[in-house]
Amino acid sequence: MIDTGPSARTVSLPRGRQRLHTMPTSAGYEVRENEVYDWDGRRRGQTPFTVLQHTISGTGRLRYESRNYRLQTGDTLLVLVPHNHRYWLAKGERWEYFWISMNGEEALRIHKSILSAVGPVLRLQPSTIDHLADCSVRLITGAVTPGAASAVAYEAAMALYDDVFGSHAFADEKSAMQPVVDYIKANLDRPLRVADLAEISGLSRAHFSRCFAESEGIPPAEFVLQQRLQRAAKLLTKADFLPVKEVAIMCGFEDANYFSKVFRRLYGTNPTQFRTTGMYASMGNHR
């Protein structure tokens, strides 16, 4: 792409009988330097489409709703039109990039889900960037039929989707949550508020709760309660010299009545009966 120099193509193809769910509207590669380049998402018409623009080098600027971004090498911009945003080249700066614009119900759905999850500025894997660049080149140089153009645009949308929501992304989130999980397990005798756990993770409470649930399969408050009860079940049978009230305190339950209530809800019996019947020995999934 870089070797061939700046190029662009507005994709205007004859419509088929069926509406295609993903359709490119333009693609290209450009270098802008110390010139007027300014796009306002509220002034580009009312027909919905998306813009995916990757910064190869230089710097671009983005104001998205009330937040400002400085787009640098490796950043990928994703915006929906019409929308309250603006991206531009600041005076005296240089911006090298490639882009793909597309519309269609599926393209809009996928890109809206990505924007909702991670926002308008992405840090993609190198392999994804190469894949998107290849899609842009193919749209510029070929894809002369509606079906061929739609297939390339859908391929680009799916490459982006896999990068944001694929297995590696969940693995990253799981590893990011591990310090929180370790902290919970080491402090089950103490108050463990979701706000404090979010602070450990470095995320906002809402974003932390979403990431934790995706990583561990349940919300953080439910995970804490589950861990407390699992420890209680173990102590009730492995440390039978401890009074039930002491077990409750060691597992973070200040109210013995509440402890008994939630314990019964999970195990179907109260803590004293659980201890005397030896249920723990037959419940390997609670070890």
From TrEMBL:
Recorded superkingdom: Bacteria
Protein's recorded name: AraC family transcriptional regulator
Species of origin: Mesorhizobium amorphae CCNWGS0123
Domain HTH araC/xylS-type: 178-277
UniProt GO molecular function: DNA-binding transcription factor activity; sequence-specific DNA binding
Keywords: Activator, DNA-binding, Transcription, Transcription regulation
InterPro entries found in the cross-reference section: AraC-bd (IPR003313), AraC_XylS_family_regulators (IPR050204), Homeodomain-like_sf (IPR009057), HTH-like (IPR037923), HTH_AraC (IPR018060), HTH_AraC-typ_CS (IPR018062), Tscrpt_reg_AraC-type_HTH (IPR020449)
Statement: the UniProt record of this protein carries the keyword Transcription regulation: yes
Pfam families listed in its UniProt record: AraC_binding (PF02311), HTH_18 (PF12833)
